[in-house]
Amino acid sequence: MRIPFLLAAIVASVHATAQPTAEAMTAEVTDNVATEYADCAAYFSIVQGAFQSSGKENEAKKYKDASDKAAEFSLLAAKQSRTEDIATRVTLARFEMSLKGMQKTIANNYSNISLLMNKHSDSCVEAMTDSSALIKRWTEKVTTKYSKGSSAPR
Question: Which of 27, 41, 53, 135 has the fewest CB atoms within 10 Å of its CB?
Fold first, then answer.
């Protein structure tokens, strides 16, 4: 995954109109990308647990690998605008917050996992298979935010 190259190319293509610096916009995009990957890591971790609890070890392993990879991507994106130590701590905190929130959503009951699948499955699969689409989506949201003057891209 080449986040720095992709971001530089996308941010460079955005024309500036009284907007933050390219560095500030890049940091905001990477922050949102990192957060989304942390959410995916948590989602995949819960799906892993569901498969594991039903004795489906092969499927559980696939989702563990996906969770680990999403966490790795989250950390990589977080490092774009933070020191390694802070990026690591922020990534872990984001993962834990997402995990707790998702567990609460399903009332700690895997039979309610469809509540998470509906919200996270498609976007997380896309994030893991096409990081450039994820970066482009967040670049567009951040750019739109500043061109409209709103306060939050989410």
Answer: 53
What is the Cα Rg of the chain in Å?
16
What is residue 111's DSSP assignment?
A: G
Residues 66, 126: contact at Cβ < 8 Å? no
Angle among Cα 89, 100, 36 to the nearest 5 degrees reads 60
* Residue spans of alpha helices (H) in 1-148: 3-13, 22-53, 57-78, 84-105, 114-129, 131-148
Whether 12 has a pLDDT exceeding 90, the answer reads no
Name every residue whose Cβ is closer than 8 Å to that of residue 27 and which is 6 or more positions away in sequence.
80, 81
Q: Among residues 28, 50, 98, 51, which one has the least CA distance to residue 70?
A: 98
Distance of CA 25 to the CA centre of its chain: 17
Residues 91/39, Cβ–Cβ less than 8 Å: no
Q: Percent helix, strand, coil in the chain (nearest 5)? A: 80, 0, 20
Which one has a higher pLDDT value, 3 or 112?
A: 112
Give 64's contacts (C-beta < 8 A, 6+ positions apart): 44, 45, 48
